[in-house]
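As noted in the main text, all predictions were made from sequence alone. Below is one such record, for Dipicolinate synthase subunit B.
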Amino acid sequence: MRNQKPVVVAVSTNDGLGANAQNLGKLMNMKYVFIVPFGQDSPKDKPNSIISKTELIIPTILEALNGKQIQPIIV
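Prediction:
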Protein backbone atom coordinates (compact mmCIF):
# COMPACT_ATOMS: atom_id res chain seq x y z
CA MET A 1 0.00 0.00 0.00
CA ARG A 2 2.91 2.32 0.69
CA ASN A 3 3.89 1.97 -2.96
CA GLN A 4 0.31 2.58 -4.10
CA LYS A 5 -0.12 -0.98 -5.37
CA PRO A 6 -3.37 -2.91 -4.95
CA VAL A 7 -3.87 -5.30 -2.04
CA VAL A 8 -6.51 -7.99 -2.56
CA VAL A 9 -8.16 -9.48 0.54
CA ALA A 10 -10.24 -12.68 0.60
CA VAL A 11 -12.11 -12.84 3.90
CA SER A 12 -13.19 -15.99 5.71
CA THR A 13 -14.17 -15.70 9.35
CA ASN A 14 -16.68 -17.05 11.84
CA ASP A 15 -17.40 -13.54 13.18
CA GLY A 16 -17.52 -11.39 10.03
CA LEU A 17 -21.05 -10.20 10.71
CA GLY A 18 -20.46 -9.80 14.44
CA ALA A 19 -17.76 -7.83 16.26
CA ASN A 20 -15.39 -8.04 13.28
CA ALA A 21 -17.82 -6.29 10.92
CA GLN A 22 -16.39 -2.88 11.82
CA ASN A 23 -12.86 -4.03 10.91
CA LEU A 24 -14.07 -5.34 7.57
CA GLY A 25 -15.82 -2.03 6.97
CA LYS A 26 -12.57 -0.16 7.64
CA LEU A 27 -10.73 -2.35 5.14
CA MET A 28 -13.41 -1.80 2.53
CA ASN A 29 -12.96 1.96 2.91
CA MET A 30 -9.17 1.95 2.43
CA LYS A 31 -7.54 3.12 -0.77
CA TYR A 32 -5.73 0.35 -2.70
CA VAL A 33 -7.54 -2.43 -0.76
CA PHE A 34 -9.82 -4.58 -2.88
CA ILE A 35 -12.13 -7.22 -1.40
CA VAL A 36 -13.00 -10.54 -3.00
CA PRO A 37 -16.82 -10.73 -2.92
CA PHE A 38 -18.16 -12.72 0.02
CA GLY A 39 -21.38 -14.01 1.51
CA GLN A 40 -22.70 -15.91 4.48
CA ASP A 41 -21.17 -19.34 4.94
CA SER A 42 -24.09 -21.10 6.60
CA PRO A 43 -26.82 -18.64 7.68
CA LYS A 44 -28.75 -21.19 9.73
CA ASP A 45 -25.85 -22.88 11.54
CA LYS A 46 -23.34 -20.00 11.70
CA PRO A 47 -25.21 -16.68 11.43
CA ASN A 48 -22.10 -14.47 11.76
CA SER A 49 -19.85 -16.50 9.47
CA ILE A 50 -18.74 -15.21 6.06
CA ILE A 51 -16.61 -16.73 3.33
CA SER A 52 -15.14 -15.28 0.15
CA LYS A 53 -16.28 -16.57 -3.21
CA THR A 54 -12.99 -18.21 -4.23
CA GLU A 55 -14.05 -18.41 -7.87
CA LEU A 56 -13.91 -14.59 -7.92
CA ILE A 57 -10.31 -14.23 -6.72
CA ILE A 58 -8.80 -13.93 -10.21
CA PRO A 59 -11.51 -11.54 -11.50
CA THR A 60 -10.99 -9.41 -8.37
CA ILE A 61 -7.24 -9.28 -8.96
CA LEU A 62 -7.73 -8.26 -12.59
CA GLU A 63 -10.12 -5.47 -11.61
CA ALA A 64 -7.80 -4.35 -8.79
CA LEU A 65 -4.95 -3.96 -11.28
CA ASN A 66 -7.21 -1.45 -13.06
CA GLY A 67 -8.03 0.29 -9.76
CA LYS A 68 -11.62 -0.99 -9.64
CA GLN A 69 -13.52 -3.00 -7.04
CA ILE A 70 -15.49 -5.94 -8.44
CA GLN A 71 -19.20 -5.58 -7.64
CA PRO A 72 -21.24 -6.56 -5.79
CA ILE A 73 -18.96 -7.12 -2.78
CA ILE A 74 -21.62 -8.83 -0.66
CA VAL A 75 -23.35 -11.68 -2.47
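The first strand starts at residue 7 and ends at 9. Residues 12 and 51 are 4 Å apart (CA to CA). These features were considered when defining construct boundaries for the mutagenesis experiments described in Section 2.9.
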